[in-house]
């Protein structure tokens, strides 16, 4: 599989903030291949979110380059970057940013209506298909106040997928969920990855990372280690062994 996303010598320092002048990213090099499922781990403040936002064009790095689908996006204008994010990238966050005065269904389809790449009929049927696969079809007409945290995160995933992105970025996508619901959300993300969508997420949770294929470890703004677990295979039922392998590895890195 080819490279989808590549960072070269990516550095970022924030102009102001608690660590004035300190580099949040230090010459990070990373290649994300099409179809990969990656977790970024590391201590608090090590630069995981900064990496995710710099890779996705949500924020600009101070130096270095980001290439997406063979095109260098670091020099894109804000407008072009926002079009790229709308059309080719999906985002899932810890805190679910759904609009209060819209139904779950309308929240899911809104960005696709704006992107205008497909007819509303196609978008609606895609939204229903994703809602069915995510187990929330019966909530389509409900307001977001009528759904649980796990159901809202499923809706947020459907929303992230609605424009059929090439990559989905997740910043602690299970961070606000209990562990059973977090496991279900990860199984859903694994299915999405199985069907070809590349996924890169940031997590503190070993159980979450153990369901991904490659785990990167960040320390003080640098990617210092990685572990390949390979794709999760449901029939193998080796979830516990993967978690143990990862726990041992993280302990050896001091986390
Ligand atoms: N908007 C900002 N302005 C100034 N400094 C920032 C900003 N965002 C992050 N930082 C600093 O950059 C460094 C990396 O932060 P970042 O949020 O990327 O780490 P993280 O590994 O995602 O942390 P956590 O696990 O706690 O979310 C930290 O020192 C942080 O204080």
Q: What topology does this entry show?
A:
Layout (H helix, E strand, L loop, with lengths): L2 E11 L9 E11 L3 E5 L6 H8 L7 E6 L2 E2 L5 H11 E5 L10 H12 L4 H14 L15 H13 L5 E5 L7 H16 L3 E5 L3 H4 L4 E6 L2 E7 L10 H15 L2
Parallel strand pairs: 3-8, 3-9, 6-7, 7-8
Antiparallel strand pairs: 1-2, 1-4, 4-5, 9-10
Helix pairs in contact: 3-4, 3-5, 5-6
How much helix, percentage-wise, in residues? 25-40%
**Alpha carbon gyration radius:** 18 Å
Number of strands: 10
Task: Please give the order of strands in the largest beta sheet.
Answer: 6-7-8-3-9-10
Characteristic key phrases:
255 residues, four-stranded antiparallel sheet, alpha/beta, Rossmann fold, 25% strand, single chain
Describe this structure in words.
A hairpin with a 2-residue loop joins strand 4 and strand 5 (71-72). The model has no long low-confidence stretch (mean pLDDT 92). Helix 3 crosses helix 4, helix 3 (104-115) runs parallel beside helix 5 (149-161) and helix 5 (149-161) packs parallel to helix 6. This protein has one domain (3-253): P-loop containing nucleotide triphosphate hydrolases (Rossmann fold, 3-Layer(aba) Sandwich). It has 255 residues and is of the alpha/beta class. Strands 6-7-8-3-9-10 form a 6-stranded mixed sheet, with helices on both faces. A 4-stranded antiparallel sheet has the order 2-1-4-5, with helices on one face. The radius of gyration is 18 Å and the shape is globular. It contains 8 helices and 10 strands. The two termini are 32 Å apart. The site of adenosine-5'-triphosphate has 13 residues, from helix 1. Pfam families: ABC_tran. This is Putative ABC transport system ATP-binding protein. It comes from Cohnella phaseoli.
């Amino acid at each position: 599989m080819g490279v989808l996303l590549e960072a070269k010598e990516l550095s970022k320092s924030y102009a102001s903030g608690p660590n004035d002048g300190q580099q949040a990213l230090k010459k990070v090099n990373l290649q994300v291949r099409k179809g990969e499922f990656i977790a970024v781990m590391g201590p608090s403040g090590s630069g995981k979110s900064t990496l995710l936002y710099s890779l996705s064009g949500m924020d600009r790095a101070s130096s270095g380059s980001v290439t997406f689908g063979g095109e260098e996006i670091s020099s894109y204008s804000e407008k072009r970057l926002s079009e790229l994010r709308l059309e080719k990238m999906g985002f899932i966050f810890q805190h679910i940013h759904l609009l209060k005065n819209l139904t779950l269904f309308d929240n899911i389809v809104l960005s696709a209506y704006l992107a205008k790449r497909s007819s509303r009929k196609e978008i609606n049927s895609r939204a229903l298909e994703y809602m069915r696969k995510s187990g929330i079809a019966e909530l389509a007409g409900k307001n977001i106040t009528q759904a649980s945290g796990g159901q809202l995160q499923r809706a947020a995933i459907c929303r992230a997928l609605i424009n059929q992105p090439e990559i989905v970025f997740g910043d602690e996508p299970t961070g606000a969920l209990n562990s059973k619901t977090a496991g279900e959300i990860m199984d859903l993300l694994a299915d999405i990855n199985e069907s070809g969508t590349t996924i890169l997420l940031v997590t503190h949770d070993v159980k979450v990372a153990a369901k991904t294929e490659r785990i990167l470890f960040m320390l003080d703004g640098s990617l210092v280690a990685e572990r390949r677990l390979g794709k999760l295979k449901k029939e193998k039922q080796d979830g516990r062994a993967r978690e143990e392998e990862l726990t041992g590895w993280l302990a050896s890195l001091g986390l």
